[in-house]
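Need tokens for this chain, all 116 residues.
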Amino acid sequence: MSGSMRMAGANVLLLRKAEDKRQRDALRRAFKKADVNQDKRLSFSEYCSIVKKVGIGLSEDDLKEIMAAKDVNKDGYISVAEFLGEAMEEDPDKKAELAFDIIDKDKDGFISKQEF
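Here are the structure tokens for all 116 residues:
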């Protein structure tokens, strides 16, 4: 699998909802570890830190887009529910569009073989 293909997959995974108990528990532990100041929410720098620690190399712009999509209530932070993808207002179409936009690097409206 090419590096760009792994990167595209990582971008999409960051937007997915935790689907089973084991996955939710692992994400809760990751959230707690990332929440350095223990305020029960992740700032942009805390979110970036956890993404980089797990080895996902994304640009700051990509991380800002993902954070904006995860931050459902637009308070500038990611709550546990938002981190786990359990926020009530989360729009699957918006997440799909964001994932597409992140993968579509040249912004031509298509995903080429090179981009994926």
